[in-house]
Amino acid sequence: MQTDDFQKFQDGIAGVMGFYGKSVSRFALDVWWTALKRYDLAAIVDAFNRHLANPDAGQFAPKPADVIRMLQGSTQDAAMRAWAKVDQAVRSVGTYCDVVFDDALIHRVVQDMGGWIALGAKAEDEWPFVAREFENRYRGFCSRSERPQYPATLIGIAAAHNNLKGFKNDHPVLIGNEQLALQVLRGGTDRPALGLKRMSVALDETVGEALHSQTRLMSEQRKAG
Predict the structure, then answer these.
(1) In 168-192, which positions are buried (b, 16+ CB within 10 angstroms) versus exposed (e)?
(2) Same-domain status, 30 and 135
(3) Which helix (H) or strand (E) holds 52?
């Protein structure tokens, strides 16, 4: 939350506790604020609503720990849903094409993990560890209510090659909700995560490795099918 959210937060806490016939002291409000300020206000409201509707715990006034438990569960669910999109996109679209997801945070997490091309170069036996790293990073941003800068497009092998050669790129593949993906595209930065000089040194090796990995993955999928 931001400092500007404090009054709404205070009114919300007072309203919830009033529902249980309890008043809230200034000290208690400070405790609530300190415990929950790293979360998004909308997520906190949702967690309170879910606590109130909980048939087991909803009869008791919530404590900060109850709300945090709800919030952490929701961030885990969000991280798992986000990873499912990434996993499906790698397997169905591949990392040869540029992609734009309908979730800006996916772009930032993938960028922090080395980029779209590097993700596609991972071997199948590395995939569970990649999934865990992605989910942990995604949850970290969610729990801190961060809205970090992110690349407008996750660059694939073809675009990386074209950028170095000065060729025109195709339109990126939109993943998920098309309208939301277009919003992500418009809201991102075009600043590359790697300098072009550094990219040119490593590109041949990265592209070859990624293509080899994609070929192996497709072969494994055909055998499994």
Answers:
(1) ebeebbbbbeeebbeebbeebeeee
(2) no
(3) helix 41-53
Give the tokens for residue 106.
């996916």
Give whole-number Cα distances, 183 to 93, 177, 188, in Å.
20, 10, 9
pTM over 0.70, yes/no: no
DSSP string, 102-123: S-HHHHHHHHHTT-HHHHHTS-
Task: Please say whether the dihedral angle defined by the alpha carbons of residues 187, 108, 136 and 126, taken in this order, is positive or negative.
Answer: positive
Question: Has residue 193 been placed in a domain?
Answer: yes
With tokens 């709800």, the residue in question is: 70
The two three-digit tokens of residue 108, written as one number: 């930032």
Residues near 180 by beta carbon (within 8 Å), at least 6 away in sequence: 102, 103
Q: Domain check: are 152 and 183 in the same one?
A: yes
pLDDT in tens, the chain (225 residues): 878 889 999 999 999 999 999 999 999 999 999 999 888 888 899 889 988 988 888 899 999 988 988 887 778 888 999 999 999 999 999 988 899 999 999 999 999 999 999 998 999 999 999 999 999 999 888 877 677 899 999 988 876 666 566 656 668 899 999 999 999 999 998 765 443 334 444 444 554 555 455 545 555 554 555
**Range of the structural domain that residue 32 is part of:** 3-62
For residue 75, being part of any structural domain is answered with no
